[in-house]
Amino acid sequence: MMRQYELVEKVKAYNPQTDEALLNRAYVYAMRAHGHQKRASGAPYISHPLEVAAILTDLKLDDATIVAALLHDTIEDTETTREEIDRLFGAEIGHLVEGLTKIQKLDLVSKKAAQAENLRKLLLAIADDVRVLLIKLADRLHNMRTLQFMAEAKRARIAEETLDIYAPLAGRMGMQDLREELEDLAFRHFSPDAYQAIKNRLEELSEKSEPVIGRIEKELSQKLSTSGIHASVKGRLKRAYSIWKKMERKSVSFEQLSDIFGFRVVVDTLAACYATLGIVHTTWQVVPGRFKDYISTPKQNDYRSIHTTVVGPGKQRVELQIRTEDMDRIAEYGIAAHAIYKDGRALPSSAKESSESNVYAWLRRTLETLSEGDSAEEFLEHTKLELFHDQVFCFTPKGQLIALPQNATPIDFAYAVHTNVGDTAVGAKVNGVLVPLVSTLRNGDEVEIVRAEGQSPPSAWEEIVVTGKARAAIRRATRAAVRKQYAGLGQKIIERAFERFGKEFSEERLKAALPRLARATLEDVLAAVGRGEMYSGDVVKAVYPDYREEQAAGAGANLAEGGWFGVKGGQGLVFKVPGSSEGDGGGDMSRAIPIRGIGGDLPVQFAPNGGAVPGDRIIGILTPGVGITIYPIQSPALTAFDDEPERWLDVRWDIDEQHPQRFPAQLNITVINEPGALAQVATVIGESDGNIDSMSIAGKTADYREMVINLEVWDLKHLNSIISQLKTKPVISAVQRVNG
Ligand code: MN
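Above: the input record for the complex with manganese (II) ion. Below: its predicted structure, written as tokens.
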């Protein structure tokens, strides 16, 4: 096991200015925090963060990264909090450790191949500092190096995740060595048999090939040196995993596979790269189609090198990579090569443009590069679609990843999971805590939707959600709900009409009459009548074509007698107003349509000039294409509808006591014409908690002013009390409610 002083030595070797005390403090802190925790191998837990930190010293990373590596599992696995790390080690390190804690969630995600790309994006979205990714990769590398201690069932899953997510990520970050090691370790556990077979064969070959490698190294070095090129030439057998991939890709057997040797030629200058290429191509036979110039066209991750394959001595295929030292460092360390020099000390030539003091601009550019794939196709795809930083990635409680646009709400999340989940959502828990459905989700949030069956989404949600899917579904659901309301209304109107015509209502008969009504379904008819598009009398006539008009003569008479459209047994209007004795009325509440002010799902409006307030007995008048207009029963305006009984509806108040609402009323007031009279009227109404909407002068004489006041009150009792107050003022000679 590595020791703390060894780690400090490693850091000092490349960074003599390191804050040794800080490193030691972090070590002691992590050791205490992890206490007696053990790794699966039985080793003390602290050995893991120590090894992770050591891996990062190979990349020559800064103190903050090394310290964060030492602390990387403390928030996740111990009592430590972000605040404590901020306090003891500063916010920069706290931020890094927190980033790693968030990513830790990923390891819990049940892996689905289709999600790999999303998961890589999530990593990038969470890690707003590239150092978080570097620590995460080192963490994964150490876990892979010690994977044999894990339970067998877990190994394959972790290995697969490494192949799908972490190895490609390392590749995109330009860290080829790290990628290859991760792939090899993963391959060993993911396909143990294939791995072993290739490994055995490679060992066999390496005994035979050692002379071949040596021979090529020597021959090439000599040729280059006679041409005045200073170069280092290193050959090796390729890794088991890359051989396996090639076998899969080309469906060839191991025996047929010829290029298992790779050589790296590192030279001093750019010109020397091309000179070397010329010498290689004139010395050995070139394998067509294998030449790639990543120097003139670098990869997205900044990788630059010349690749070519030749037929070497002994007819072996040999792959060569030719590059300068700068290019080699980037090829090996990738992004970390930039990170090392991020304070601008010794920028590699390729990164000169990033020497700006603004590290974040550099980070952003790097992360953008990362989000782009290697191929032109992938690049296009990513520029077309939203980039990852416009997205948030959240999880279901079962670990399914849901990608949403920025500013998405739990409602969007619910609809993304399933339309039915969205339609029945009534609440949400984010990371175990109940939050309003209108909150904004953040990366890595685990979201649980609380549902209630039979619920339908309020139309106001449409304004809140950000995804098209949610918006369309809400619109659909609201439309269905409104249609249902209209159908319910229509049903009542039709039942009423049948009674008025002295016929019995039956759904079966109505269904049989659908063709005559030119409607497809029963609900179509009900909704059409509810919306006022179809006259209820026509429905009765469609069901009873033989019906003769004069039989309905009684309808109007009933109304005049104070009965209601022939409804028997005192089934009059039903009012439900808290604290009102009129509320009971002795009627059948279920027959009346509940009215809840303006703004509900039913298209309800109040009669012009006065309206109605709770406590008034009310009647609804159906106006085709408009909806229901509510009148107080005493309103003289109602006489206009005496001849149209089918338009009259039983309605009752249904006041929501939790959410009191004001209703419109109108007063005619006559005041004595003297200074301050208007002010007195306004004061009385204001002090009685009335809301004046508008005031106008309706008539003038020398002594009096007649005015019309539109105001809003809570209910009839409130209105009456305002009227009484007004009447006590000597300046007011008369108060009259319009419609009163
Ligand atoms: Mn760890």
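Notes for the reader.
The CA atoms of residues 613 and 715 lie 5 Å apart.
The domain at 663-737 is CATH 3.30.70.260 (Alpha-Beta Plaits).
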